[in-house]
Each structure stands twice: as C-alpha cells, then as structure tokens.
Amino acid sequence: MASFHVDNGLTGTQQSMSTAYKTLLEGVANTTGITRWWLYGFNIGPSGLPSSTDCELVWDISRISASGTGTAATALPLDAADAASNITWETNNTIEPTVTATSSLAYGAMNQRATFSWQTNDQSQMLTGPATNANGLCIRAKSSTYTNTVGATIYYRQ
Fold first, then answer.
1. Which of 21, 41, 53, 68 is least enclosed, having the fewest CB within 10 Å?
2. What is the pLDDT, as a whole number, of residue 46?
3. How much is the pLDDT for 79?
C-alpha cells in the first residue's frame, strides 16, 4: 500500500480566513482507477502573521460530494518507487466544495499561536475517502477574528 503527502503551501495562493469555512485541501476519487483511500495523518496551523489580539481557529475534516475550485496539486509518494496517486487534489480553494451535511469526521479548535497534528497507524482509526467518483474529503478552517492564512498537510494511503 503506497503512502502519499500533499499540502497547501507549495501550490496556489493560500486564502485568508473568515467566519465561513475556507477549504485548504480537498481530495476526490478519479474517474479512472477509482479506489478507496485512508487518511492517517494531518497537520494544520497558521502560516501568516498572528493577529494583534489572541484569536481562535476552528478546523474540520468533512466528506464532500463535489469539488470546488482551487489550484491543482500533485500528491507526492513517500517512497519514490511507488506509482502516482489516483486521488485528485486541489488546494487553497476560491470556491468551496459541496460538503455533505453532518459529515464531519474530525473537528477541533486551536489558538492562532499553535499548530495541531494528528497521526494514527491503526487502520480502524484512519479516515476513509470513498471509492465514489468525484467524492472525497476536505480539510478546512475558519475564525471569528483571525484573518490571515492557514497551512495544512495530509498524509494518506491507497
């Protein structure tokens, strides 16, 4: 099983946070070679300067049923001998994907001066991306007061 890494720091323009969710990364199954995939780790944190007042950031990983509009990103295999990924990735969306109602798989909050990291090696705790054309997962963030940018990295297997 191949492992991959994708982030929103190297491609596209990171979007400023607002009170509405902004998608940092979205991954969907391709029409060719549709396969299930397993998210086993992610990092998220502010990538811009902190605000002068202490701010909160809220993040979420949810299921999506249609892509938004972002910059295409290529997931890199962690082992260079592995084949390319079958998952289509977009970063730093300017138009949000269609998030499935009540589908949040992970949710958290953090301070603007912090980052959050999660990783598991237990298959039963991995977040599963569906093997359904144009369906997948997204990681997004919002804040009531922080208006700068946020970075995210996802690690997954397929």
1. 53
2. 94
3. 97
Phi and psi, residue 111, nearest 5°: -85, 155
**Bridge partners of 64?**
99, 136
- Distance, in Å, from the CA atom of 68 to the CA atom of 75, rounded to the nearest integer, reads 18
Contact 43, 152 (CB under 8 A): yes
One-letter amino acid for residue 3 of the chain: S
Q: Using the structure block, give the residue that is written with the tokens 């603007």.
A: 112
* DSSP secondary structure string for all residues of 94-129: EE--EEPTT--SEEEEEETT--EEEE---GGGSEEE
Q: Give the pLDDT score at 47.
A: 93
Q: CA separation (Å) from 126 to 19, 66, 118, 120, 155?
A: 29, 22, 10, 7, 11
Tokens of 93: 């969306």
Name the 3-class secondary structure at 144.
Answer: coil
> What is the Cα Rg of the chain in Å?
15
Which neighbouring-strand residues pair with 97? none
